[in-house]
């Protein structure tokens, strides 16, 4: 076992169909109890968790007639039945509320919807609700698909601003070859860098009900690690895994983040999204951002330059010097109207009220 103590504050936990519906036709709680205990315990310690749960198709399979190969329409109908069952299965394990979010690729590609998903998650976590996310299987077509929930989970770490991704599956982690095909396969405890040599270790076999296989888990891990998010692949069928996770140990394969979260976020905000304008702030706002790591309130805004929509990256300037980049929660014209105003006046000025702040501290990095 690795000696490295795991440190995390907000994790996305991805649970594969193999754990929700191990026989491929209907939900079970057998493999979810230890994970649920871990979630409850972690939340009590003040940590935050977002679940990405597969299993809707497998959970609904026994209610939709299908002869031979299942058609897309049949699968989508299975997902429609199974999604509510899967949610009910989770909800009975917790005495706090669970919330369902169903996403398509299109949702996260659109700035406004990306921002809405971000804001919703933030509110849910603030209210101690457990968000449970799946792909909106009943409506997606191939072009709009994430493809698999490992990929979806990697994107959700970005939307939810998590620091850790934990992928729970039915094997102990990444082996040097498929453990189901080779009984001498060796488990890799830690991977510093997901190189092409590491990528080819994953075979293309899947569990009875899985979609992505190990290859998609490695692609997801690589995506997350590049964004500064450490990733673990663990065996969710083994209850001892969650005892170890709770102790800060690595019970599977740990993929180290390639850079710091802050550095990756800065790169994403500056280069990935490209800043579209700037917001000039007063000394009070400057001090709040720099010294207290606070969000930017409308009261501290002096001027706005450029044209941008909500969800775009903007530069924040003090005395004409760039001090931070962040995601704007309102568009340029709206922020012009809000400049110097109290947050309590947002509703009367704009006619609606989304957030109290113009840029949230979670979506802001200092330069
Ligand atoms: N190198 C490897 N190490 C571990 N598992 C592998 C490897 N290559 C292929 N696999 C297969 O990947 C499967 C897990 O993927 P998948 O069936 O999609 O699970 P899930 O339903 O949890 O997403 C394992 O059951 C295993 O057979
Ligand atoms: N969205 C689909 C699962 C897709 C998927 O990637 O499944 P899995 O490989 O079991 O994580 C469902 O809920 O059935």
From TrEMBL:
Pathway given for this chain reads: Amino-acid biosynthesis; L-proline biosynthesis; L-glutamate 5-semialdehyde from L-glutamate: step 1/2
What does the record give as the reaction this protein catalyses?
L-glutamate + ATP = L-glutamyl 5-phosphate + ADP
- EC no.? 2.7.2.11
GO biological process terms held by the UniProt record: L-proline biosynthetic process
What SMART domains has UniProt attached to this entry? PUA (SM00359)
Q: Which residues form the PUA domain?
A: 277-359
Q: Which class of enzymes does this protein belong to?
A: transferase
Specify whether Lyase is a keyword of the entry.
no
Instruction: State the name under which the record lists this protein.
Output: Glutamate 5-kinase
Tell me the organism's taxonomic lineage.
Bacteria, Pseudomonadati, Pseudomonadota, Gammaproteobacteria, Alteromonadales
């Amino acid at each position: 076992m690795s000696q490295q103590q795991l440190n995390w504050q907000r994790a996305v936990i991805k649970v594969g169909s193999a754990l929700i519906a191990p026989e491929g036709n209907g939900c079970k709680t057998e493999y979810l109890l230890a994970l649920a205990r871990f979630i409850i315990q972690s939340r009590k310690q003040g940590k935050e968790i977002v679940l990405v749960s597969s299993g809707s198709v497998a959970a609904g399979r026994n209610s939709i007639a299908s002869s031979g190969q299942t058609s897309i329409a049949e699968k989508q109908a299975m997902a429609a039945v199974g999604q509510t069952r899967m949610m009910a299965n989770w909800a009975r394990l917790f005495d706090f509320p669970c919330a369902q979010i169903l996403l398509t690729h299109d949702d996260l590609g659109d700035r406004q919807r990306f921002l809405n998903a971000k804001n919703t998650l933030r509110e849910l976590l603030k209210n101690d609700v457990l968000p449970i996310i799946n792909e909106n299987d009943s409506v997606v077509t191939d072009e709009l698909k994430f493809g698999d929930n490992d990929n979806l989970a990697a994107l959700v770490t970005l939307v939810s601003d998590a620091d850790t991704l934990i992928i729970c599956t039915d094997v102990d982690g990444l082996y040097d070859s498929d453990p189901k095909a080779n009984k001498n396969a060796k488990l890799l405890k830690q991977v510093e860098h997901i190189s092409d040599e590491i990528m080819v270790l994953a075979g293309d076999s899947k569990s009875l009900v899985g979609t992505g296989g190990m290859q998609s888990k490695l692609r997801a891990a690589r995506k997350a690690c590049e964004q500064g998010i450490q990733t673990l692949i663990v065996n969710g069928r083994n209850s001892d895994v969650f005892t170890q996770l709770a102790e800060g140990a690595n019970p599977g394969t740990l993929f180290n983040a390639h850079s710091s979260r802050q550095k990756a976020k800065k790169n994403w905000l500056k280069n990935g999204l490209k800043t579209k304008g700037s917001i000039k702030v007063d000394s009070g706002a400057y001090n709040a951002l720099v010294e207290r790591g606070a969000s930017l309130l409308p009261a501290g805004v002096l001027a706005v330059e450029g044209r941008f929509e909500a969800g775009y990256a903007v530069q924040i300037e003090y005395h004409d010097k760039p001090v931070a980049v962040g995601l704007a929660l309102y568009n340029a014209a709206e922020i012009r109207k809000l400049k110097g105003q109290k947050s309590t006046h947002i509703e009367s000025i704009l006619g609606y009220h989304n957030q109290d702040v113009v840029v949230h501290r979670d979506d802001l990095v200092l330069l």
